[in-house]
Amino acid sequence: MSAAKNKTTASLVWFEIPADDLERAKKFYGALFGWNIAPFPGMTAPGAENYLHIDTGGPDASPDGGLMKRAHPQQPITNYVSVPSVTKFMAKVEKLGGKVCAPKTAVPQMGYFAVCQDTEGNTFALWEMNPKAK
User: Is the pTM of this model over 0.90?
Assistant: First the structure.
């Protein structure tokens, strides 16, 4: 199969970096890559202070990300891949031998995500844009 026939519209759209010390990680990534890391404007939900926006400063197609308080000691960086349907791609993950670790979850007025694991034990997330998500 040629690469052209195997083309997909799925692309990396977001990433999350877990950290034990948000200020230390913010300083490190800011100094290393020149990223601007700050709270989300207007975000007031409980725990919002433990999730910061990473502006990578790249071209519009470059993904931004989140810097978050680490939930458990082995929590890895999570990459989010844009897909047309989280539900369909969850089924595809399982058909190909991967597994769904966290089910389809709404991010109100933004979209849906699900966390999956590939056949090598790596985790990643699927992301579906949908402004009607509840």
Answer: no
